[in-house]
Prior knowledge:
By secondary structure, the protein is of the alpha+beta class. It has helices at 26-41, 66-73, 91-105, 129-132, 143-149, 156-167, 171-190, 220-224, 255-261, 285-297, 315-324, 337-340, 347-362, and strands spanning 5-11, 15-16, 50-54, 82-85, 110-118, 201-203, 206-208, 244-253, 267-276, 306-309, 366-373, 377-385. Helix 1 (26-41) crosses helix 2 (66-73) and helix 10 (285-297) packs parallel to helix 11 (315-324). The longest helix is centred in the middle third of the chain and has 20 residues, at 171-190.
Amino acid sequence: MAEAYVVDAVRTAGGRRNGRLAGVHPADLGAAVLDALVDRTGIDPAAIDDVILGCVTQAGEQSFAFGRNVVFASKLPDSVPAVTIDRQCGSSQQAIHFAAQAVMSGTQDVVIAAGAESMSRVPMFSNLSLHQKEGIGIGPVSESIAARFGIAEFSQFKGAEMIARKHGFDRVALDRFALESHRRAAAATEAGAFDAEIVPVLVDGEPHVRDEGIRYDATLESIGAVKLLAEGGVISAANASQICDGASGVLVVSERALKEHGLTPIARIVDMTVTAGDPVIMLEEPLFATDKALKKSGLSIDAIDLYEVNEAFAPVPLAWAGHVGADPARLNVNGGAIALGHPLGASGTKLMTTLIHALRARGKRYGLQTMCEGGGIANVTIVEAL
């Protein structure tokens, strides 16, 4: 069977809400990643067959063929097409799948899978403005959907609380996980573990190269002092992912492109799985998607050297690890979205970038990435570092 290879994987450092990256147009954030992939690999930009870009909140500056605008803002020629996709938090992970499927099918040879999201400039849920601000329509949940599931809206926050209750996690367990995310991210930053994957974004003439969200002085007490999002619940802003501005991307190519362009791969795509389940609890699907991916690939969880499970909310990776029997020491080894931020549509390729670089830095072989997504969907990608 034809193979799909990753030649390089990069990301911007995360920017806090209204932080250093807030003054950068999201198209320019995405362009920084595209330009870095071209510069670092030496690929002729005209040889790129397509750009598949994930973005969740496609409104304002992230609307009107956003992926194509990212190409216009980059050094890629106008001849390179682009498309913008939305699979919620897994948008750019799905972009990897689409890119790999394109080169494996032989229809394309060089594809960039990327994601960009400025949550400062285009706030989450701002694409609901017609309903919420203009009073047009009733919103995304139609009367038939509401009747089918017995709800007025789907809520990721309620889903996170449901997972915590179902899997028996109290607030202390979630806060301890959040603290470990900050500790690991801080240690990775200080050790230079992110240096190979972060590309600079110029802000007021200075390069932004350090993730802004890490709390180097975090303690269990400071995390526990943050107000809960719901009375009687266990989820707070401190044990959930941070709002973040950022972009990321990977260059995916065929074996033919490796030879034609003299490229050296850093990873091979082993398995691509996407499943869907209960849209109400919503965020639990990575557990079952991972079961399917491992069965398809013929690999056991013990054969996977590192895992990246998006820290949308602390109960998600905790429930995942318990369900699949994962080793906590291999989970999000450089911290996760609780410390580093979750730039929605960019998180898929962001996690993949960190996963591949971490595997190579440790001399490890297999990595698994999974992401909970709106609507009860989950993507799983297994890669082999080369």
